[in-house]
Amino acid sequence: MDTPTWSFLPPRKVAYLKFLREQGNTAKAGEIAAHFSVDPSTVTKTVHELAAAGLVDHQRYGRVTLTEEGIAHADFLIWRHRILGLVLSHHGLEGDEACEEAERFECYVSHQAVRKMCSSLGHPRRGICGAIHHEGWCGVERENDVA
Ligand SMILES: [Zn+2]
Ligand SMILES: [Zn+2]
């Protein structure tokens, strides 16, 4: 499987895509601004960049919706985040601390490295902050992926 070309997105964009996925793939720009406690103009700028990359549609009334590629991208980001969070949790970090630390460096870890960690953890089904879906990202067999 090829490493997604978008696997090195900067942390703010990673956070927005993960947030949208968790909101059912769509949110208003104002909701994104409120969630991240940032200025709406900052959100607008980033959303326009994500739209230019084909990852979101920016509709009327400030609604932002993940495209199909955006959804696939977000699922990859969530898988990567939760595997790295689990790795940290096995080395003394707990709960939110593991999540927050993972967010600081996750965009710098290669897809190949995360795949190896996922495999060495036995393709866990649950991460610290939610379920982990492996399909497509780490080469796990489909039968093994269905609990
Ligand atoms: Zn987390
Ligand atoms: Zn896996």
What layout of secondary structure does this protein have?
Blueprint (H helix, E strand, L loop, with lengths): L10 H12 L3 E3 H8 L3 H13 L3 E3 L4 E4 L1 H22 L5 H11 L5 H10 L5 E2 L2 E2 L10 H4 L2
Antiparallel strand pairs: 1-3, 2-3, 4-5
The structure holds zinc ion (ZN) (2 copies).
One zinc ion binds next to loops.
Structural notes for this entry:
The protein has helices at about 10-20, 30-35, 40-50, 70-90, 95-105, 110-120, 140-145, and strands at about 25-30, 55-60, 65, 125, 130. The chain has about 150 residues and is mainly alpha-helical. It folds into two domains: about 10-65, Winged helix-like DNA-binding domain superfamily/Winged helix DNA-binding domain (Arc Repressor Mutant, subunit A, Orthogonal Bundle); about 70-145, Winged helix-like DNA-binding domain superfamily/Winged helix DNA-binding domain (Arc Repressor Mutant, subunit A, Orthogonal Bundle). It has a three-stranded antiparallel beta sheet. A two-stranded antiparallel ribbon has the order 4-5. Strand 4 and strand 5 form a beta hairpin. Helix 2 (about 30-35) crosses helix 3 (about 40-50). The chain is globular, with a radius of gyration of 15 Å. Residues about 145 have low confidence and may be disordered. The site of one zinc ion (ZN) has 5 residues, from loops.
